[in-house]
Structure formats: structure tokens, C-alpha cells
UniProtKB/TrEMBL annotation:
InterPro entries referenced in this protein's UniProt entry, alphabetically: GlpE_sulfurtransferase, Rhodanese-like_dom, Rhodanese-like_dom_sf
Annotated ranges, domain Rhodanese: 23-111
Protein name per Swiss-Prot or TrEMBL: Rhodanese-like domain-containing protein
Record organism: Alkalicoccobacillus porphyridii
Amino acid sequence: MSYEDEGIIQMDAEELRELLVTGAKEPILIDVRELDEYAEAHIPGVPLIPMNTIASLSAELDRSASYVFICRSGKRSQNVALFLKEQGILNVRNFVGGMISWQGDIKSGLEWVVKDVNELKKD
């Protein structure tokens, strides 16, 4: 069940699973871990934008879109959400518990490493 921490909505694994099942265009899910962590195991279909590249791409993100950020434990993704909220992207959420709490499907390899934020737009 969602709750708020530091002004950021925290989503649990069940809520994230429901989003994946519906296949909704938004919120846009983004993994913010490092390449090696993502390659080891990630949620299928979720793109990677490593935390250390978020600042350089933040101006290009759609400010009207909604986002959910995912990391290993929920700490880095919380920091990304806080940073982007400060940059004017207001509809941001954190997957609390991160990948260590995820019990759903996982995939290995570098499935979708974002090079251009336009890749995130779903038709």
C-alpha cells in the first residue's frame, strides 16, 4: 500500500506488479541502478537510466509524465525522485524495497539501456 516519505509516494511490490499487468503507458518505470546490477537481474521491459546519468538527462524528461524509479533497495531511487521533483518533475514515485523485495519475473542482460529519453515515449 502506498504511503508518502519526504513528499515522494512509495509504491510496494504488489502495486508495481499491478502496473506491469495493466501495461499502462504511465507511469513510466525506470531502473536507476548501475549497468552490472541491471544486467544481473531486472524487471522485464523496464529501461535503465543509471543514477549517475539522471542529472544530465533531467532537462529532457517530459515534465507532464509520471515516473516510478527502481533500484536495489529503494534508497537511490528515492534520491532520484527527490532530485527530479526539485527539477520540476512533480509526478514521481519510488519503488520502496527495490529489487531485493521484488518477487516477480526477472530478466538478465542489458535489455534496454536508455541513450535518448525519447525512447521512453510509448505510443
